[in-house]
Amino acid sequence: MVRQVKPKKALGQHFLKDMDVAERIADTLAEYVGTPVLEIGPGMGVLTRFLLEKGHDLTVVELDWESVSYLETHFPALEERIIAGDFLQMDLSGRFPASFCVIGNYPYNISSQIFFKVLDYKDRIPCCSGMLQKEVAERLAADPGSKTYGILSVLLQAWYDVEYLFTVSEDVFDPPPRVKSGVVRITRNKRTSLGCDEALFKTVVKTSFNQRRKTLRNSMKPLLGKDCPDYVLPVFDKRPEQLSVEQFVELTQITERYLKSLNEEAHD
Questions:
Q1: Whole-angstrom Cα distance, residue 127 to residue 37?
Q2: 51, 70, 94, 97: most buried by Cβ count inside 10 Å?
Q3: Class of domain 198-267 (CATH, top level)
Q4: 1 pLDDT higher than 50
């Protein structure tokens, strides 16, 4: 493939040049033909081409003006569905009033932020797939007890089934990155409620992992203080990476009850 857009380091651009890999990524949304799809960072349209060929109702968002110009020239079928802008700043509810899927060869430097934003629209996004740095992809799919299990693992797995699909070598990119890539697919699970305050759940997860090497008895002190009587419970003997999503829900319920009791005491 002749390179016609210069990759920009500041945007984390590494253009995929392997058509077989591009088609395999496009196939991750095979079950969702008919559901609108938003592709993030299409670059010169290697993945775009296969998504269109496979009949997807496609919109793309691209921050790089040079890539936007290339797409407008080479993909006239997209017409008004090339958005020149930053996905992280988009109002997705205005553009997609109903369900839609997300896909892309995600820039390494913002891939975690992309998945955090997907979570904000979890009730509209049944599936999100794509390629990102292998280490980050493995983190999304990590099980409790793993060293890579962290904040995004828990928050994603609360609402999505996460699959690590395959690894991609550095040499299929121009320019080649210094690390391998991984392709993941997240599919919305059947959970409709956590059974606890959702905002507090996020706070509990983030607080506990801020000191991931410590037990929860220590890492939760910023939220619960030094004298919480619930510290006698066995869950506080554990470190955050040992807890499943369900155990984090339980921890949030404990936190919610204790904070409520403190609030009631303050108003007595």
A1: 10
A2: 51
A3: mainly alpha
A4: no
